Each structure stands twice: as structure tokens, then as C-alpha cells.
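FAQ

Q: What does a record look like?
A: Structure on top, sequence underneath. For example:
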């Protein structure tokens, strides 16, 4: 903010000096003074163009940031909606155990299926065709 105040003060000083020179030019100033006055005006014009470019860039950046803010706001609303409407059939995360055991990241149903898979019969008895045909129907 101090930089802007310094720039403002610089422009004010330049403009006041140009006004003073313009007032004095009515009294038939030499050609050299008039050239200096023209150079000062051109220098101020260049500085103004640079400031306008900077302001335009800042406006574009501000617009992009506003769009990004809207996007994040939409994401936040979406996440909040998901949090508020979390389905009941999905298992909830277990609270961390106070012991120093590492927490299992697998859901509870995965553990049950592992236990069930271990109980399957590993051997199957084969029967012959004669035994199969002798079974009453």
C-alpha cells in the first residue's frame, strides 16, 4: 500500500511541475524547455500505460480467483451434502483404538469373508458311476 502512495505522490509532483511549466510557457519559454515538457508528458504516458497493464493483469487474476472460489464453494457444498446424507448401509469408520496397535484399513465385512473362506472343505470324496446310479431317486 505504501508503494501506491509513493507512486501517487510521484505523479502529483510530476503533474504539478508540468502545470507550472505550462503556465510559464505562455511567457515565451525557450524551445529547450518545451522539449523537456514534451518528454515529461511522454514519460508519464508510458508510466500510465504500464500501470494500466498491471491493473488489467490484477483484474484478470481477481476474476480467476473468484471463479476458483466459486468452484471450491461448490465442492464444499457437495462434500457437506455427502456428509449429511451418508447412507446407513455403509459401515462407519471405527474410532482409533487407544492401544498402539495399527488400525486396520479394511472394512469389517472383508474380515468375515476371509474367515468364511478358511472354513471351506479342502477335500472332496469321489464316487464312482456305479455308486451314483445306485442312489435312489
Amino acid at each position: 500500500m505504501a508503494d501506491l502512495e509513493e507512486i501517487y505522490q510521484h505523479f502529483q509532483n510530476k503533474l504539478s511541475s508540468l502545470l507550472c511549466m505550462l503556465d510559464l510557457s505562455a511567457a515565451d519559454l525557450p524551445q529547450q524547455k518545451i522539449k523537456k515538457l514534451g518528454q515529461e508528458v511522454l514519460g508519464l504516458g508510458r508510466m500510465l500505460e504500464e500501470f494500466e497493464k498491471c491493473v488489467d493483469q490484477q483484474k484478470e487474476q481477481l476474476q480467476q480467483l473468484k471463479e476458483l472460489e466459486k468452484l471450491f464453494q461448490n465442492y464444499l457444498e457437495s462434500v457437506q451434502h455427502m456428509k449429511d446424507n451418508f447412507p446407513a448401509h455403509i459401515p462407519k469408520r471405527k474410532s482409533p483404538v487407544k492401544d498402539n496397535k495399527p488400525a486396520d484399513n479394511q472394512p469389517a465385512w472383508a474380515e468375515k469373508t476371509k474367515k468364511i473362506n478358511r472354513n471351506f472343505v479342502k477335500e472332496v470324496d469321489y464316487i464312482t458311476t456305479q455308486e451314483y446310479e445306485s442312489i435312489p431317486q
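Q: Is there anything notable about this one?
A: The two ends are 98 Å apart (CA to CA).
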